[in-house]
Amino acid sequence: MPSSTMSSESATAPAVLGAEPTLRPPRLGDGAQLWRIARDSQVLDVNSSYAYLLWCRDFAATSIVAECDGRAVGFVIGYVRPEAPDTVFVWQIAVDAEFRGRGLAATILHALLDSVAPAGITTLETTISPGNTASQALFAAVARERGAGLRTVSLFETHDFPDSHEAEQLYVIAPAQRQEERR
């Protein structure tokens, strides 16, 4: 189940603190690093390593990797909802611990929305558990920065899951284009 987070512990050597990450679509070779970032976050539901490889191959057009010194330090993975072709669903977003506090998660989300806008994507959806206040603040800030509306509705209740899992609220940002693009 998706759940967004903005932090993760890094299992590799620290990157240069002053270095600015570059943003790009994921490549197949990023799958292991995305899996590591998700695992080390201790907040995200960790998908199988195979799933991250598939995300990098099949959903590169709706995903972004932040790279610094040749390694992934953050990512957002998403997909266009089949029943709502104007909606990108953000499955996961995470940033390595050493890159927190720089606004990288918001930068990655803005980059994703800017990259999918030419395809007619006007809405962003994600789910966030009630206890994940960092992600709640992130998505609220992105909506505010884009001059967009943000609404939340209950989507998955605890009893909907076959295992122990917090409820997930659906966050909807619309219109997702920047205000100046809507004019």
TrEMBL record:
Residues 21-168 form the N-acetyltransferase domain. Coiled coil: none annotated. Pathway: Amine and polyamine biosynthesis; ectoine biosynthesis; L-ectoine from L-aspartate 4-semialdehyde: step 2/3. Keywords: Acyltransferase, Transferase. Pfam families: Acetyltransf_1. InterPro entries: Acyl_CoA_acyltransferase (IPR016181), Ectoine_EctA (IPR012772), GNAT_dom (IPR000182). It comes from the Bacteria. Residues 1-23 are annotated as: Disordered. Its EC number is 2.3.1.178. PROSITE patterns: GNAT. Signal peptide: none annotated. Residues 1-11 have a biased composition (Polar residues). PANTHER family: L-2,4-DIAMINOBUTYRIC ACID ACETYLTRANSFERASE, N-ACETYLTRANSFERASE. Belongs to the acetyltransferase family. EctA subfamily. This is L-2,4-diaminobutyric acid acetyltransferase. It comes from Nocardia rhizosphaerihabitans.
